[in-house]
Backbone:
């Protein structure tokens, strides 16, 4: 059986969860007997492909075009390189004539040969459920619907995402399957970790990732500011998502908070691991997630999880978290305080988190994905 992954995500993403997913499963599936795996990615920009076993990747990493900017700020060389990579990748797939083509993102047209079976993975339905958070020019939702319609089978990364995809896209439930993502423990080495973090002895709550829209960070700020105990005894530390924007700084100030209360860091996995290890609790106020890796990262570092009770989050976290209603800031504040004021409860969440991590592995993800391929051929 010949299995091919197209070039879409690898021409568009240098780093990120989607390209990481395809590298993880392709590397494992390639080890199975009777299977030939190829990632067709000419002129790609993806860093993860360098670590995929030899013989799988057809293509090379193109030069960095980030520093080529036009006066309007648009990166035409990178767009041109991406388009050329997609065209060459389409031709290479036609030559390979695989039995299975697993499309790596959402294209309005079929890439590669017409023969063979098509697989698509849907990671979330955020563009559909929170359309106001995206510009009118964003065509992700439209292209996703077209890709799902032509696919022979659609893999969803959670039951929540599967339900939303069936409802919004009108998919036949028999055409879909749920396969959970894997999870790797992060590197916990502390070399090159920001000295400000290592020197920070005050207790703190940790928030990770982007902060806009459905991520619901403003509600966390309101909950934190409304609790005398939290704002007096704990800092709120944010990792990633870029420096605070002017509107965020205004919100922070309007709530009577300052940079002694709320801090932002950016950096690598070593820094994030150090923050997880030191945090009193990890807070996940998102209104919706297709899966949600950060709670698992927190559990891997014995950091108790306090999270929303919506979307796929309860499906992933299970009994290893304290839940709150993300639109009720009082409920959120009470949940955080419950965890912080009970040492025994914090320890029980940590213990349950260690058990919960056993449910997620890339090996299982790859085996279940290969099973889908075999049923279609």
Residues:
């Amino acid at each position: 059986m010949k299995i091919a992954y197209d070039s879409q995500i690898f021409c568009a993403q240098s780093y990120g969860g989607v390209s990481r997913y395809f590298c993880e499963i392709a590397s494992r599936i390639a080890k199975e007997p009777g299977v030939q795996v190829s990632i067709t990615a000419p002129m790609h920009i993806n860093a993860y492909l360098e670590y995929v076993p030899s013989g799988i990747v057809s293509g090379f990493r193109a030069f960095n075009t980030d520093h080529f900017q036009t006066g309007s700020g648009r990166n035409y060389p990178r767009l041109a390189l991406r388009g050329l990579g997609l065209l060459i990748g389409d031709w290479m797939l036609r030559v390979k004539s695989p039995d299975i083509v697993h499309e790596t993102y959402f294209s309005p047209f079929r890439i590669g040969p017409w023969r063979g079976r098509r697989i698509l993975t849907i990671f979330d339905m955020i563009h559909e459920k929170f359309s106001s958070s995206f510009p009118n020019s964003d065509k992700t939702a439209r292209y996703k619907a077209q890709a799902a319609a032509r696919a022979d089978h659609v893999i969803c990364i959670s039951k929540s995402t599967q339900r939303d995809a069936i409802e919004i896209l009108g998919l036949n439930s028999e055409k879909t399957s749920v396969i959970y993502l894997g999870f790797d423990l992060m590197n916990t080495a502390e070399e090159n970790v920001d000295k400000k973090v290592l020197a920070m002895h005050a207790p703190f709550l940790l928030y990770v990732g982007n902060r806009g829209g459905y991520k619901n960070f403003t509600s966390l700020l309101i909950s934190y500011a409304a609790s005398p105990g939290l704002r007096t005894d704990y800092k709120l530390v944010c990792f990633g998502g870029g420096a605070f924007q002017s509107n965020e700084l205004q919100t922070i100030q309007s709530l009577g908070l300052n940079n002694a209360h709320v801090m932002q860091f950016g950096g690598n996995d070593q820094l994030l691991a150090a923050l997880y290890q030191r945090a009193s609790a990890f807070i996940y106020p998102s209104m919706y997630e297709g899966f949600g890796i950060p709670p698992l990262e927190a559990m891997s570092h014995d950091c108790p999880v306090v999270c929303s009770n919506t979307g796929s989050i309860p499906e992933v976290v299970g009994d290893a978290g304290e839940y709150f209603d993300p639109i009720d800031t009082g409920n959120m504040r009470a949940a955080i305080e419950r965890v912080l004021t009970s040492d025994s409860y914090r320890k029980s969440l940590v213990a349950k988190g260690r058990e919960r991590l056993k449910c997620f592995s890339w090996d299982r993800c790859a085996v279940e994905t290969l099973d889908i391929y075999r049923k279609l051929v």
User: Anything to note?
Assistant: The CA atoms of residues 45 and 276 lie 30 Å apart. Confidence is low (pLDDT under 50) at residues 66-73. The first strand starts at residue 2 and ends at 5.
